[in-house]
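Hey, can you fold this?
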Amino acid sequence: MTKLKVAVIGCGSIAQHRHLPEYASNKNVQLVAVCDIVEARANEVAEKYGVKAFTDYKELVKSGEIDAVSVCSPNYLHAPISIEALSNGLHVLCEKPMATSQEEAEAMIQAAEKSGKKLMIAHNQRFVRSHQIARKLIENGEVGKIYSFRTAFGHPGPEGWSVDGKNSWFFEKDKAFIGAMGDLGVHKTDLLRYLLGEEIVEVGAFVETSSKEFADVDDTAVCVLKTESGTIGTLAASWSFTASEDNSTIIYGEKATLRLEDNPTYSLVAQYTNGEVVNYELGKIQSNDNGGQKNTHVIEEFVGAIVEDRDVPISGTEGMKSLAVILAALKSNDTKTIVRV
C-alpha cells in the first residue's frame, strides 16, 4: 500500500510533542515536510525527522508532494491555512479552536465540501478512555437523567510549555484571538457535547485576566452552560492553576455520579445512588506532565479515516459547534448577558 504523504505546518510544541512523533510512528504515513515561519526552527525539526523544510505554507501546499497536512499554527492562521490546503486537494487535520469566528469555520467546512477532502478538528478529549466509557454509561441509561455537571481544565499556562515561553503567540490577542478559553475551554465544550449527547444552547460567562499581567488575552474563565434539555452546569478554563493541572469532569445523574479524571488512581469513578462504587483504572489522561499518555489517538483516527475512506470522527461541523459555545461565552462577558448559542 502506498503511504500517505503528510506535512506538518507550524513546528511549535503541539507539533513537536504530538503530531510529528505520532505521524512518525504510524505505519501508514510517510512524513514528507514541515513548515514554520521561523526558518531555524523549521530546519531543526526537518533535520530531526529527515524531511524537507518550508517557511511558506502556500509553497508547501502547492508543491504537489503531499496528500495531507496538520495545521499547528497560531489560531488566527487556522482558517487561512486549512482553506488553502483543502483548495489544493489536501486532507486537513486542524488544531483547536478551529477558527476565530463562525464565518471562518463555515468557510473551512465549505472548502472541505467543495474539494471532497477530509477536514478533522483535533479535539483529543473524545479519545480519552474514561470519557468514552462515561459516554457509554450515559447513553445506555446507567446514570439516568442528567441533573448537572461541572468540568474544569486548568494548568499554570503555556509559557511553561510553548517553544517561545512568555513570548508565545498564545498571549497575543491578534494571533491567539482568545486565551485560556480558546486553548482549554474549547476542549471542554467539545467534551460536554460528546458526553451528554446534546447541544449547549445558552451561556453566561465571566472571562478575565487574573494572573498573566503580560498577556492581552484571558487567563481565567468561568461559564454557566445550559443544554437543550435544560441541564445546567459549569465550565472553568484557566492558566492560573499554578500548582498542578486539573482536567476533571463530574456528571451528576439520577442514578449515579461519574467522576472523570478527578482521582489520581482511578480515571473514572462511578458512584451509584445505591451505595455501589465502581473504580476504573485506565491509565493517565494525555497531558504534558510526566506519565501522561503520549498517544492522543488523533493522528491514527485522522490517518485511518483517509486510508479507509470513512468519515472523520470530529468533522468541521462538530468543531464549529464547539467553537460556537466559546464565541457565545466571549459575547456574554462583553455584554454582561446570557447569550444563546
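Oh, and this one too while you're at it.
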Amino acid sequence: MDQLKDFADNRLINGCIHCAGPADTRDHIPSRSLLDQPFPENLPVIGCCQTCNQSFSKDEEYLVCLVDAVLSGSAEPDKISRPSVARILRNSPALRARIESAKRQSTNTVEFAVEQDRVANVLLKLARGHAAYELSQPCREPPDHFWCGPLATLPSDVRDAFNAFHEQKMFGEVGSRGLQRLLVTEMVLNSGDGKESRVRMLINDWVEVQEGNYRYLAIDDAGGIVIRIVVREYLACEVCWRMDIVGNITDEKATRS
C-alpha cells in the first residue's frame, strides 16, 4: 500500500478509536488474520486500547474461519485453502465444531447459519478503523446504516454500483489520507448531434490491500461517511454515519427483496 502521511488535525482522532480511552496499543486495519503472508507493506494502523483490541480477537477468528468454511463448503482444515485459517481450525477444535455444526446441506447447496452479532462486531471495528485512518473522522457512535452479506446476493445493478468508484462532490477533512487519494479524471461525452464535451471528475476509488483477500472504499462527502468493505471477494459490507446527501447503495437491495 502507498504510505501516506496524515496532515489532518490530529485532535480529531484522539485516544482509542473505539472507546476514546487511552490508546496504549495499535491495531492493524485490516487485521492481518484477513490477509496472507507476505503481508502488504505499510498496512494501516490506528490507536486503540488493549481492552478493545483483545475484545475483538475471538470474533475475528470466527469471521476468518467462517468465510473460508463457506467458500470451501466445510470447516475441516484439510479442505481450507488458506494455511493460516486451516491452522486456526486445527488448533481450535471447539471453533471448528461450532462452525461445522452450523452447516446445513441440501441436494445442491451448502449453507451456514451465521452468528450475525459476531460478524457485525468485526466489520464495524474495521469500518471505524478505515474512517479514522483514511478520513480522520472518529465514528464511535452507532452507524445510521449497516449492511453485510454475500456480494453475489446483491442484484447485478446494485452490485455494480457498490463496486464502482465514488464521484466526489465535496472535499472531506483537509489533509486526510482519503483526500490525498482523490484523483482528477476527464471524461469525453458525445451528444446526440455529434458534439463532444469534456467533464472533469474527482474520483475516490477502492483501495486494494491484498488482491482477492481485502479491499475497501472510504467516503467522506456531502455530510456523510460511507465505508465499503469486501473480504475474499465474498463477504461485502456497507456502513454509513452522519448521512445527509450521501446515500447508501445496499438499501436498494432491501426495497427489492
